[in-house]
């Protein structure tokens, strides 16, 4: 459903990239941004969730507290080195798939 999306482009048609940190190589690398996903299945999923929720006691809008050990509370990223600019990453990047 969300696979095989095209690469997102800017207004002038150039591909968009972001920086991603690799735990294995301990380096930053550029990754192409993809076009936004289409969530056409969400209305059906919401209907199924609320039908299931009707049988469970309690309120539908009750909040769940995140624990202190939740990984989302630790850090923005795991990089050891500071993040370089995307332009710098693109200039240094060598792809296995292109031959120049």
From TrEMBL:
Top-level taxon of the source organism: Eukaryota
Name of the protein described by the UniProt record: Uncharacterized protein
Source organism per UniProt: Paramuricea clavata (Red gorgonian)
């Amino acid at each position: 459903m969300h696979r095989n999306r095209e690469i997102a482009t800017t207004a002038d048609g150039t591909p968009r990239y972001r920086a991603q940190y690799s735990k294995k190589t301990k380096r930053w690398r550029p990754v192409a941004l993809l076009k936004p996903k289409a969530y056409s299945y969400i209305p059906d999923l919401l209907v199924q969730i609320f039908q299931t929720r009707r049988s469970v006691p309690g309120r539908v809008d009750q909040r769940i507290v995140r624990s202190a050990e939740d990984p989302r509370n630790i850090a923005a990223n795991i990089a050891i080195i500071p993040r370089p600019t995307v332009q710098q990453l693109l200039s240094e990047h060598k792809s296995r798939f292109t031959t120049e």
